[in-house]
Amino acid sequence: MSSMQEYSVTEDESEADIIVVNSCTVTNGADSHVRSYISHVESSGEAKIFLTGCGAHTKGEKLLEQGRVSGVFGQSEKIKIDEMLSKEEPFYEPGDLNHIDESVVDDFIGKSRAFIKIQEGCSFRCSYCIIPYVRGDARSMDEDKILEQIARLARNGFGEFILTGTNVGSYGQKTGTSIAQLMKKISQIRGVRRIRLGSVEPIQITDEFKEILDEPWLERHLHIALQHTSPQMLKYMNRRNVYKQDRELFELLASKGFAIGTDFITGHPGETQQLWEEAMRHVRELPLTHLHAFSYSKRDGTPSAQMKPEVNGKIAKERLHELESIVKAKNFEFRRSFDGELDVLIESQKDALFIGYDQHFNKIMIESDEDLVGNWINLQKYEVKEESNYGRV
Ligand code: SF4
User: Fold this and answer.
1) Which of 261, 184, 179, 257 is nearest to 215 (CA)?
2) In this structure, is residue 32 part of a structural domain?
3) Which site in 31, 144, 187, 200 is 20 to 30 Å from 168, CA atoms measured?
4) Mean pLDDT (the chain, rounded)
């Protein structure tokens, strides 16, 4: 990438002449963090501040009017960052919400695992979520470009690819293809060993997707966003999933040996004690192994922000902890009852231990005298402890 060659990057804020704030706006809390960070920069020096990221759409105009930032540019304009930073006059260029990024490679972990961005935006309208308004509707990256980039990375030794996006499972819907078809094509690229998916929605595990469940290149872990397990709460949240079908789907996946993660929000308005207890009865029934949960945080501009009755924040946090401890115990049980080999990709090292993830996306710590970072290891013997698995090679 030839951008920003005229600039040097500093870790020390006080040395910076320009600060680009790449903002998030997913909760009101994220917005206030951005505002307080800008106040902190204003009070500690003369640096020019530019605002980009999702927050450019929700609060950029106001911050510009108040003279608190020198310029605001949206996601699609990041590619022109040199031009943006050299502008002398204040400007507001939110860009195009339907823009598709040219570059699909998003990030790397070491030299073995690459994150590939395959789509942007979301056409769902969950009541608590601001994302569709700041990222636009779902649109997919060009298939040839994705395959070309993966082939290039695979030639350079990358074996694992993680497909990411705002709503990955919607890939290809408008172009007559699908996430399952894309994954099949990726799997045929020489050197591709394991494919992982970001979060998908239950309704995106279609019959076509179910046909690839036995493929050896598909990671034995899927992250399927439920957000709740009370049918009434799912309605309040304007979700498209239905608990009864979610349960059937999870049972099918578990019968095929998948570890299953989910997203969950506790304390959304309307979550009475009775609905919560029903939801936890359902969670106990589900074969869940991983969890990405939050307590509800109000986001202005979303339908949920107007809903009543609200749930006390302390109760929402307590519910979050209750949920976390249920899933933690389920994960331990899953690891204890699995009696096969672990296929581990080592990502990093901490002190004398190497840290990797197996095919179920469970962390494992491995002791070794050799440098294992970036290696694939097949482990037949290991110890299962409550916090994680341990091995020695
Ligand atoms: S599917 Fe995800 S990104 Fe889309 S509106 Fe719902 S929570 Fe937001």
Assistant:
1) 184
2) yes
3) 31
4) 91
